[in-house]
Design goal:
single chain, 15% strand, alpha+beta, elongated, two-stranded antiparallel sheet
Length: 302
């Protein structure tokens, strides 16, 4: 049965999709942080900030890592400095390096205008803030980002609560199909032994000779072993229990759940290949369909 959450309990799963936005101000200066996350194999952050804020990027990333562990995150800072005087500066070191690369590649002088259009060559900086003012702004922007990172985590947890119920329901379906397969697997083994005995009797009648009982038993054992899916069903039950434990662990479980999805699919495939009846084959196909849905949803889990 599905494990239900109490009304006051935090969602045990965190999704990798979410959005958060936080506004901030310091004097006449205002800003807005927007954070958006989607699925990712690890924590990958893409920053969009004014050049004057580049020095706080490492601090911001540490704050984000304290809230999320996986996902592709886009972090955008819109900063408004009223009355600021802006200057365009050329990053001469980067421009010289690009020019050297272009000369070696093309054997001629590069197009300077084209080089200046590349990201990071021209930088717009405001000269209206003193060093102390810039430090105070950095601290305030960092505090706002911390709030945005917490809001992003809350959004991902809200999405994770929905994922929890979807995945728990799919695990219930896997358990249901596994339970259906048990009696059918036993019946297939018995039916196979009966068919073998019937065939042996027919053959003995036509050949006017009896088939030794030990030989018949040996063949029956071989066929029963090939068609026996009880080990696969036992492993499915173990995987079901593991899935439920991971869903309620409160820890990042996306990678482990993805591995379990592969194990579920392996057992379902084996069940289909060894099925000795149409009914058992149909259960195996139903299992594969549910496991596909499980794997698709697990891709969203942190």
């Amino acid at each position: 049965m599905t494990s239900d959450l109490s009304p006051m309990q935090s969602p045990p799963l965190q999704s990798m999709t979410g959005f958060a936005a936080v506004d901030g101000s310091l004097g006449e200066t205002t800003w807005n942080w927007s954070l958006k996350s989607v699925n990712g194999k690890s924590l990958d952050v893409r920053w969009r900030m004014p050049g004057r804020m580049d020095g706080i990027e490492a601090t911001l990333k540490r704050l984000l890592q304290g809230q999320v562990t996986r996902g592709s995150v886009s972090a955008s800072l819109q900063l408004d400095l009223p009355g600021a005087r802006h200057e365009v500066q050329v990053n001469h070191a980067a421009l010289d390096r690009l020019a050297q690369v272009a000369r070696r590649r093309d054997g001629r002088e590069p197009d300077t205008a084209a080089l200046l259009s590349l990201p990071g060559i021209l930088e717009t900086r405001s000269t209206s803030l003193s060093e102390d003012e810039q430090t105070a702004l950095n601290e305030a922007v960092i505090d706002s980002f911390a709030l945005a990172a917490k809001a992003l985590r809350l959004a991902r947890l809200t999405e994770g609560a929905q994922l929890y119920h979807v995945l728990s329901g799919l695990v219930d379906q896997i358990e249901h199909h596994t339970g259906e397969a048990g009696p059918l697997a036993d019946a297939v083994t018995v039916a196979m032994a009966e068919r073998l005995s019937s065939l042996a009797a027919d053959l003995a009648l036509k050949a006017s000779t009896a088939i030794p009982e030990d030989r018949l038993a040996q063949e029956a054992a071989i066929l029963a072993t090939k068609a026996d899916v009880r080990e696969e069903l036992d492993r499915l039950r173990v995987h079901i229990q593991s899935a439920r434990e991971l869903l309620t662990s409160g820890e990042p479980a996306g990678r482990k759940l993805d591995f379990l999805a592969q194990e579920f699919m392996r057992e379902a495939n084996t069940l289909c290949s060894k099925a000795g009846s149409m009914a058992l084959t149909n259960i195996g196909l139903a299992l594969k369909s549910v496991v596909d849905q499980f794997k698709e949803q697990v891709a969203n889990v942190e």
